[in-house]
Amino acid sequence: MHNVYGPAEATVLTTPHVCDPRATTRPPPCRSDSPLTGYTVFINHQDGRIVPRGQAGEVRIGGAGLALGYVDPRRTTERFVPAPAGRPYAERVYRTGDKAVMRPDGLLEFLGPLDEQVKISGARAEPAEVEAALETHHSVRRAVVVPFQAAGGGLRLAAFLLLVAGARADENAVLATVRARVLKQAVPAVVRFVDTLPLNSNGKVDRALLARQAAAKTSVTEVARSRQLSQAEDTEAFLLAACRRLLDQPHLTPADNLTESGGTLLAVARLVALLKSTYPIRIRAAEVMCQPDLAALAALVATRRAEPAPS
């Protein structure tokens, strides 16, 4: 069995790789250090520099099989560009628009199209990169990550996971693996372990349906979170529940920083209003934002609660 990569602009077949049919993980990457004779394949930064192995960038292809261009001259100029000096078989190369990492062993790992980025709490996140991080966990056979509109109005990520046969569903362990590899804002807010993934009419994963399912789940759990919030007596538990709800970040811990976790000025203002309406305390937004983590913020709130009520 072979895994073959190559766009139509490079005559379809560029980098073949022999696969192990016994592999239980996602399809293995194509070997990029040995493209077909007459081709060159490398990873470029957006400014045109070739990036070192291990860093992500755009896949670019050059060689004898490269197309002359498109009917549209403007598009040809954008996608077919001069090759970096010293590349064999190439005076010009094709910008594939595919994002990938060339591993130290020469294998090319694809992270999806370059333009598949979403903004989560002010930070750019790439679902394909989160999928790759999830699939590094030994129990995950395949991961599909989709953005969805959370109940609080913000955009969040949901992960749908197929497990390796016999593996146990352990959300905390999987998320711990992800946190070590992606931005905090890119950690999925919803994780579901599924037996199958829905397909659309083209035979591809129906990401739109998965996004709707994730949104429906969060809207139902929002009611439960609100009830927990109103019943909480412990200051830290109350604050943690409040921040999880306001930021749509169900995995926040006392060690997390509020602003780094997506606490915008609007979210902080809402938190201050909530604290003042719940406890008769004096507290300003600037004080909230300068706390190193939620535990410190909870300690500040507890201290203010112990002070005489403002007149």
Automatic annotation (TrEMBL):
Residues 230-305 form the Carrier domain. Pfam families: AMP-binding, AMP-binding_C, PP-binding. GO terms for molecular function: phosphopantetheine binding. GO terms for biological process: amino acid activation for nonribosomal peptide biosynthetic process; secondary metabolite biosynthetic process. GO terms for cellular component: cytoplasm. This is Carrier domain-containing protein.
